[in-house]
Specification:
Elements (H helix, E strand, L loop, with lengths): L1 H22 L7 H4 L2 E2 L9 E4 L6 E4 L12 E2 L9 E9 L25 E2 L2 E2 L1 E4 L5 H4 L9 E2 H4 L6 E11 L3 E10 L1 E6 L2 E6 L11 H7 L8 E6 L2 E10 L10 E8 L5 E4 L1 E6 L9 E3 L2 E6 L3 E6 L5 E6 L8 H6 L1 H14 L4 H18 L1 H4 L5 H5 L1 H4 L6 E2 L3 E5 L4 E6 L4 E6 L13 E3 L2 E5 L3 E5 L5 E5 L9 E5 L2 E5 L4 E4 L5 E4 L14 E3 L2 E6 L4 E6 L11 E6 L21 E3 L2 E5 L4 E6 L5 E6 L18 E3 L2 E5 L4 E6 L6 E7 L21 E3 L2 E5 L3 E5 L3
Parallel strand pairs: 1-43, 2-46
Antiparallel strand pairs: 2-17, 3-4, 3-10, 5-8, 5-10, 6-7, 9-16, 10-15, 11-14, 11-16, 12-13, 12-15, 18-49, 19-20, 20-21, 21-22, 23-24, 24-25, 25-26, 27-28, 28-29, 29-30, 31-32, 32-33, 33-34, 35-36, 36-37, 37-38, 39-40, 40-41, 41-42, 43-44, 44-45, 45-46, 47-48, 48-49
């Protein structure tokens, strides 16, 4: 059997290589050439960046440590920084929670060292253990999961006090930062000393909806922060909270996150270079010759040297930059105020950049509110923290095109000289967009419809107001005709916008988030998450109304929660098609392999990810990639599983990048990496995180 599998893999690679060599468009874009196949690459299978700071050696427990105990029962992982095990007691009544906040409800409150079962009057210290919820319960949550919620642990009442206490063990002494949001008042004692006191609610983040609100407003709130000087061995942390004074409040929680107060040291392997980025993006980088191009929210395009990671140039593709000469001449605000601000923005750091962007936005609204106001559709506005405006750039090897979700399109040569920039007509509401496609001399984009622009000039060639996609447009050449596919499998002829075919399974409702893959003259489209794969073979189509051989296969997956309730197995990932095998991850980190010919499912395997799921995070959003003979699958927390091809699940390596990002908010400091697919190139592999672009391989 093993010999047959080996020969099958070799045949698959030969088929892929022939397909790419003979039929792939000579362009660069999402997933490299929109397939995720890099059969000629020889990227590393092992790498790592493992945190070795103070937090990496922390553990905690609610129970009072016994003699000789050398660690806590629960690790405080670097990527989470959250203490899950506490003793709590309450509620204790007061006349007014704010006015009486400094009054001790427990004598010598800061010095106490409670044990489970200890009494304070009629109340008892009891354990509050917060176990990590299953993926499907964390997905879509607006509230901070990693918070100590005393309202749930105790019977909430207004104008009452409560306490929470934990023992923290440090493997080595050092300083850590504790960042915290809280509702309502909070006082903290560390090793018997008061280190923080705020009798009213204080928040810099609040909920996962807050990241969208702040990024759209060009603001960045700061949560309270305290530096703790840990001693080696056991330390004590006590929190005192008060409830709201009025009758309408119900919240009584604090969200404490620990991270290293000083730069985190790392143990590294096969990190050739890492280049700091000005902002995040969901887009994947593209490699064009000796250059790498990557965007940064909300409108930047950066060009880096592939060998060193040095930023060669960057440009802003904002609404201001796209203003026409006529608009600039019509108002003195451009020359007198906006031009100087734009020059200042190009040199500004992150904080100053936010301030300048706010000023520029307000000035443009003063010039013409109707023209420069951006109104986002409600769903996009809520999920902007994960969607953003940037998309994967495209290139023909001589030029690079950038497209932003607010309708600005620009073209540059590889040296950074702008050839043209324009803004598309703005709809009443801006909705989800996607990465563009380049084919047949046309740049195809989604913005209030599907548009084909002349790639050389930016002029609109044709538009279809009904064209829609939230996943990357996919270009292909089928029977000599240049076409582009949308996310639900609608095929347009690029020369004139003629719709040649539409997937017959389309119906109202949520049918999935993934773009198809086109290999040769066949389209492969995930359907209703990972549960199905639609296959359209266009090898015999002709005329203006294509009728492909069309069928679907079922991918067997567990659609039930432990309770028996239905669970959607959604995925934003496109399929990875290698020969006759279909590979795809779902958003919860289960990986599937299915035989396209027979329709049988080879396996479904939980990859063991500890991904981040929130209202503004999808745990596994990146499509898998083939690098040489191996498959690379990533979550959004820097973990990558490298697999062999074939009908059996065979992991080769598990890799982790644990870069700590200081967001100044109380949620996981692990860098979000990666939402964009991995990009192999030669003997290296490129990954885009929210803070860094990584080049993996030998230096």
């Amino acid at each position: 059997m093993s010999g047959l599998v080996g020969r099958s893999v070799i045949v698959s690679l030969l088929v892929v290589s022939a397909t790419l060599a003979g039929e792939a468009p000579k362009t660069f874009g999402w997933r490299g050439n929109w397939t995720g196949l890099y059969p000629e690459a020889t990227p590393p299978t092992e790498w790592g960046r493992i945190a070795k700071g103070v937090v990496a050696g922390l553990s905690s427990q609610a129970a009072k440590p016994g003699a000789g105990a050398d660690k806590g029962t629960t690790p405080v992982t670097t990527g989470r920084g959250f203490i899950r095990d506490w003793l709590v007691i309450g509620l204790l009544p007061v006349a007014h929670s704010v006015n009486d906040f400094d009054k001790q409800q427990i004598p010598g409150e800061g010095k106490i060292e409670p044990a489970e079962g200890d009494k304070v009057g009629e109340l008892t210290w009891k354990r509050l253990e917060m176990k990590r919820a299953p993926d499907y319960e964390r997905w879509g949550r607006v509230d901070l999961e990693e918070a100590v919620d005393l309202a749930k642990a105790l019977d909430y009442k207004p104008s009452h006090m409560a306490y929470a206490h934990t023992y923290v063990h440090a493997a080595r002494a050092g300083k850590v930062s504790l960042t915290v949001d809280h509702i309502y008042g909070l006082k903290l004692f560390f090793n018997g000393e008061q280190v923080y006191c705020a009798p009213k609610m204080t928040m810099g983040y609040g909920s996962h909806y807050g990241i969208s609100r702040q990024k759209l407003a060009f603001t960045h709130g700061r949560s309270p922060r305290i530096t703790l000087d840990l001693k080696q061995g056991w330390n004590r942390l006590l929190a005192k909270m008060c409830s709201y004074t009025g009758p309408n409040g119900r919240a009584l929680w604090f969200a404490p996150i620990l991270m290293d107060a000083e730069p985190t040291p790392y143990e590294e392997k096969n990190i050739a270079w890492m280049s700091e980025m000005p902002e995040r993006t969901n887009a994947c980088p593209i490699v064009v010759g000796d250059h790498i191009f990557t965007p940064a929210e909300p409108d930047q395009l950066l060009c880096l040297d592939k060998a060193t990671g040095k930023v060669l140039w960057r440009h802003f593709n904002s609404i201001y930059e796209a203003a026409t000469e006529e608009d600039r001449a019509a108002s003195p605000v451009f020359k007198e105020k906006l031009v100087p601000l734009a020059e200042e923005l190009a040199k500004a750091d992150y904080e100053k950049g936010l301030e300048i962007r706010r000023q520029m936005r307000d000035l443009l609204l003063e010039v013409d509110k109707k023209k420069y106001h951006m109104r986002l559709e409600g769903h996009l506005e809520g999920h902007f923290g994960i969607v953003g405006f940037t998309t994967t750039p495209v290139s023909d090897g001589q030029h690079v095109w950038a497209f932003t979700g607010f309708g600005v399109v620009a073209c540059y040569d590889l040296d950074g000289n702008r050839k043209w920039i324009r803004r598309l007509e703005v709809p009443k509401e801006i909705s989800y967009s996607c990465s563009p496609a380049l084919i047949g001399g046309k740049l195809c984009v989604i913005f209030n419809g599907l548009h084909a622009l002349d790639a050389a000039t930016g002029k609109t060639v044709w538009s279809d107001p009904k064209g829609h996609s939230i996943a990357s447009l996919i270009p292909a050449t089928i029977r000599g005709t240049d076409v582009v596919f949308t996310w639900r499998g609608v095929c347009y002829r690029v020369s004139d916008g003629k719709q040649l075919w539409a997937n017959p399974r389309i119906q109202p409702g949520d049918l999935g988030w993934a773009a198809p893959a086109v290999i040769g003259e066949a389209m492969y489209l995930p359907w209703c998450g990972v549960g199905g794969l639609l296959i359209a073979d266009f090898a015999k189509v002709e005329g203006d109304a294509w009728k492909p051989d069309f069928r679907g296969i079922e991918v067997k997956c567990n659609h039930r929660r432990p309770s028996g309730e239905w669970l959607d197995r959604w995925t934003p990932a496109s399929p990875l098609i290698i020969g006759d095998t279909h590979y795809i991850p779902d958003q919860y980190g289960v990986f599937y392999a299915a035989d396209i010919k027979s329709g049988s499912t080879y396996y479904s395997q939980d990859l063991g990810f500890d991904e981040l799921h929130t209202y503004n995070a999808i745990g596994v959003g990146a499509s898998a990639a083939l690098g040489g003979k191996h498959i690379y699958v990533m979550d959004n927390q820097g973990m990558c599983v490298v697999l062999e091809q074939g009908p059996a699940y065979k992991p080769v390596a598990v890799n982790r990048i644990e870069t700590v990002v200081d967001r100044y908010w109380p949620w996981a400091p692990q860098e979000i990496l990666a939402n964009g697919p991995p990009v192999p190139d030669g003997s290296r592999l490129y990954l885009r995180g929210e803070k860094f672009l990584y080049c993996l391989g030998e230096k």
